Amino acid sequence: MAKRPNKISVVVCALNEGRNLRRTVESYRDTLPAKSEITVIDDGSEDGSTNFLKKLNGAVRVIRTQHIGVARARNLGATRSSGDVIVFSDAHVEAGPGWWKPMLDVLANPRAGGVAPTIADMTDTECKGWGLELKGPNPSESWLKKPGDAPFRAPLLPWCSTAMRRDTFEATGGFDNGMLRWGSIDNEMSVRLWLLGYECWVVPEVEFRHVFREERPYDMEWSWAIHNKLRISFVHFDTPRIARVVGALRRHKDFPAAAALLAEGDVSSRRKEIAARRVHDAEWYFERFGPSW
């Protein structure tokens, strides 16, 4: 069994989540062990969805920001919390009873960089995914099928409810602050963990429910999403794969704006920083997990 942590810190990133946020917070409050903490990063909500937290008498910390995006919000929440295990969570999930015990058993492995549960659709709980994998040079991702009941390593994790030790968060620098607002942020962290010598694990016996929606309750620029896909590629991939990613994305009408955003950032220095620290390269990653593009 894993040694029980001194404290689990749950970091919930929210933006106009409506009733979803309350369900998320209450599910954590009902299932976390004693001495745990919950921090909500309200990244500019205008729908009053965090008002109920005022009635909790400080039991849930709220940090208000203005559209800093998922990566920066998660990093802020982690640095402002104190648990030796951090659970990064979306604001539209529901945790099941006893979820943290099996996840922490796996997280006790020093090579485990992140540990995620089974993710079930909130409205169709028979629709489930067990980690993800990259598919083609877009680069998009697809859900994996369940390989068995035992915990297993996965190419990518869904960071909508994923646990990480604080020492790993600090050693890796957390989420990439160069990733804009929304899109591919989970994929970047997962790939980087593998390249830095960590492993990404899924625990099938633990199940979280997640709201999958066709429309988001906030504005979204496609140039941000394309930029983030480009940034993953330029930071982590080899030259031939970068060329394939550019070729796949440049057909999008927002590609020029995304490329301009990339040029304004620190992608060159970031690539050098990661290359100096990694123990595996992109070729190793794709040979292990595919696909072979």
Describe this structure as you would to a colleague.
It is a single chain. The N and C termini lie far apart (40 Å). With 293 residues, this protein is α/β, with parallel strands linked by helices. The protein has 10 helices and 12 strands. Helices cover 35% and strands 23% of the residues. The chain has a 5-stranded mixed sheet with strand order 3-2-1-4-11, sandwiched between helices. The chain has helices at 19-31, 70-79, 100-107, 166-172, 185-195, 222-236, 239-249, 255-264, 267-277, 282-289; strands spanning 8-14, 37-42, 60-64, 85-90, 93-95, 112-121, 128-129, 132-135, 140-143, 152-153, 161-165, 199-210. The protein has 2 domains: 8-210, Spore Coat Polysaccharide Biosynthesis Protein SpsA, Chain A (Alpha-Beta Complex); 222-289, no CATH class.
Spell out the helices and strands N to C: EHEEHEEHEEEEEEHHEHHHHH
Return the structural class: alpha/beta
Shape: globular
**Briefly, what CATH class of the largest domain?**
Alpha Beta
Beta percentage is 15-25%
Terminal Cα span: 40 Å
User: Stretches where pLDDT falls below 50 for ≥5 residues?
Assistant: none
Q: How many structural domains in the coordinates?
A: 2
Total strand segments: 12
CATH architecture of the largest domain: Alpha-Beta Complex
Quick overview:
The protein is α/β, with parallel strands linked by helices. It is built from ten helices and twelve strands.
Draw up the topology in text.
Blueprint: E1 8-14, H1 19-31, E2 37-42, E3 60-64, H2 70-79, E4 85-90, E5 93-95, H3 100-107, E6 112-121, E7 128-129, E8 132-135, E9 140-143, E10 152-153, E11 161-165, H4 166-172, H5 185-195, E12 199-210, H6 222-236, H7 239-249, H8 255-264, H9 267-277, H10 282-289
Parallel strand pairs: 1-2, 1-4, 2-3, 6-12
Antiparallel strand pairs: 4-11, 5-12, 6-7, 8-9, 10-12
